[in-house]
C-alpha cells in the first residue's frame, strides 16, 4: 500500500521525471548565472567609470572595468547557447515522462472510470495540461533565477561598496512573499474554474465531432453549435475573470516595486547630501541601478505569474488522474498462461449505483459452449458480458474463469485468451494488416490470409493494395459490414479460448448480416462463445439460449426447447 502511494505521489513523479536530467539541469543553472551576470556586473563598471571621472583619475584606471565588461558580455553569448540546450532537454524530457505516466495510468483505470469520464477530458490532460507545465517551467526558470542572481550579485556588490544599504535590499523579499501569497489565494480558484470550463468545452467539441452525421441528418446544426457555444461562453467568462485578476496582480506588483525603487533613489541621495554616510556619486548610481534592476527582474518574474498559476493548476489536473483510485488492480495476482474457457457466474449481483441491474445470477458455461443471451434492451446483457471480462466487479457473488475467481487472477493475462467483437468496431488509422494484427507481433501472411478468409473478409483481396490498404480514422473508408468483418478477423487471429460478440451484427443489413453470421459460425466452432443478439435468427444455432429480463434469467434452453415452451422466447420469436 505504501509502495503504491509512493509510486503515485505526484511530486515524486515530477521529481523523478527530472531526475535523469539532473546533470543537464545543473549545467543549465550554471550557464544561466554566467549568461545573466552582465546584468549586475555592468552597474559596477558604470559606477567605477563615474567615480574615475568625478575623481579625475588616470585613464589607465579604465582598462580593468572595460576588460571586465567585455569578458562578461562574451561569456553571455556562449553561456546562452549552453543554457538553452540543457534546459530544453530537461523540460521536454519531463513532458514526455508525464505523458507516458498519464497514458499508463489511463490504461490502468477501470472501464467504469472511463465510462464516467469523457475521452476528451483525458485527451486535454495529456495534450494541454502537460504543455502548460512545460510552458510554466520554460517561462519561469529564466526570470525567477535571474531575480535571485541579481538579488545575490547586487547584495554582494553593495556589501562591498556601501554595506549600510544592505538592509534595504532585504525589504524586497517580504514584499515578494506577500505578493505571492495574495496571488495564490486569489487566483487558485479562478484558474481551476478556467481549466474545468476548458475541459467541458473539449468534451462538447468531441461530442460534436462524433455526432456530426446525426446532427446533419436531422438538420440540428444550430443546436449542436449552441451546445459548443454555451461551453465556450463559459470559457470566455472564466477566462475574463482570470485575466482581470492577473491584471490586478501585475499592476499591484509593478507599483509596489516602483515605489521601493524611488524610495531607494531618494534615500541614497538624501544620505549622500546629509553626509551621514560617506557615499560617492558612483555609489548612488550603483544603488539606484541595482534597485531598478532588481525591481525590473522581480516584476518580470511576476509577469509570468499567470503562466505559473496555470501550470500549477495543470499539475493539479494531472494529479487528479494519477491519484484516481478506481483502477483495475492486477499487480501481484496470479498470471494466466492457458485457458480452457469455462465461465461461471455464482450469485452475481451488480448495480451502477441506481438499482439492481444483475440480480442473483447463476450460470455455468462449459468450455467450447456457445451461449446466446437474448432479452429486451436494458435487461443487462452487456453488463453481464462486461462482468465476464472483469471490466465491472460484482457487488456480490463471484465470476469465475476456469474455476478461478477473476478477483484472484491478473485479468490482463486472462484477456489474452479472450476476443471481443463489439457492436461498433473501431479501426485505427493504419493499414488493414495492422488493424487485424493489432497487438500481435510477426503475424505471418498465412495466418492473416486465413483470418481474413474465415471472417468472410475476402473483399480485402480485391483492393488494389490488398491488406496494405490504409483505413481512415474510425475506419471511415469502409462500409459497416466490411469493418465488422475486419473486427472478426482481428478477433480470430488471436485464436481465443473465449469469444464475446455483443450485438456484433446488429448494425448491419440482413444480407451483410447473413454473411457476417456465416463467419461467426466458423469462429464459434471450438471455443466458448457468448453471443448477445437482437435478431433471434442469429442465435438459433447456439448450444444454449439464455433469456434475460431485468437482470435475471427467466428461461434457458435450446432454440427448439424454448420455442416449444411458449414462454418469453416464444413470444419474442413470434414478434420477429
Ligand atoms: N455505464 C452505466 N451507468 C449506469 N447505468 C448503466 C450503465 N450501463 C448500463 N446501465 C443500465 O444498466 C441496465 C442494463 O444495461 P445493459 O447491460 O447495457 O443492457 P442490454 O445490453 O441488455 O441492453 C440498463 O438499465 C442501463 O440503463
Ligand atoms: Mg447491450
TrEMBL record:
<dbReference type="InterPro" id="IPR039421">
    <property type="entry name" value="Type_1_exporter"/>
</dbReference>
<keyword id="KW-0812">Transmembrane</keyword>
<dbReference type="InterPro" id="IPR027417">
    <property type="entry name" value="P-loop_NTPase"/>
</dbReference>
<dbReference type="Pfam" id="PF00664">
    <property type="entry name" value="ABC_membrane"/>
</dbReference>
<dbReference type="GO" id="GO:0034040">
    <property type="term" value="F:ATPase-coupled lipid transmembrane transporter activity"/>
</dbReference>
<keyword id="KW-0067">ATP-binding</keyword>
<feature type="domain" description="ABC transmembrane type-1">
    <location>
        <begin position="41"/>
        <end position="310"/>
    </location>
</feature>
<dbReference type="GO" id="GO:0140359">
    <property type="term" value="F:ABC-type transporter activity"/>
</dbReference>
<feature type="domain" description="ABC transporter">
    <location>
        <begin position="343"/>
        <end position="575"/>
    </location>
</feature>
<feature type="transmembrane region" description="Helical">
    <location>
        <begin position="21"/>
        <end position="42"/>
    </location>
</feature>
<keyword id="KW-0472">Membrane</keyword>
<feature type="transmembrane region" description="Helical">
    <location>
        <begin position="165"/>
        <end position="183"/>
    </location>
</feature>
<feature type="transmembrane region" description="Helical">
    <location>
        <begin position="141"/>
        <end position="159"/>
    </location>
</feature>
<dbReference type="GO" id="GO:0016887">
    <property type="term" value="F:ATP hydrolysis activity"/>
</dbReference>
<dbReference type="GO" id="GO:0005886">
    <property type="term" value="C:plasma membrane"/>
</dbReference>
<keyword id="KW-1133">Transmembrane helix</keyword>
<dbReference type="Pfam" id="PF00005">
    <property type="entry name" value="ABC_tran"/>
</dbReference>
<protein>
    <submittedName>
        <fullName>ATP-binding cassette subfamily B protein</fullName>
    </submittedName>
</protein>
<dbReference type="InterPro" id="IPR003439">
    <property type="entry name" value="ABC_transporter-like_ATP-bd"/>
</dbReference>
<dbReference type="InterPro" id="IPR011527">
    <property type="entry name" value="ABC1_TM_dom"/>
</dbReference>
<dbReference type="InterPro" id="IPR003593">
    <property type="entry name" value="AAA+_ATPase"/>
</dbReference>
<dbReference type="InterPro" id="IPR036640">
    <property type="entry name" value="ABC1_TM_sf"/>
</dbReference>
<feature type="transmembrane region" description="Helical">
    <location>
        <begin position="259"/>
        <end position="281"/>
    </location>
</feature>
<feature type="transmembrane region" description="Helical">
    <location>
        <begin position="62"/>
        <end position="84"/>
    </location>
</feature>
<dbReference type="GO" id="GO:0005524">
    <property type="term" value="F:ATP binding"/>
</dbReference>
<keyword id="KW-0547">Nucleotide-binding</keyword>
<dbReference type="InterPro" id="IPR017871">
    <property type="entry name" value="ABC_transporter-like_CS"/>
</dbReference>
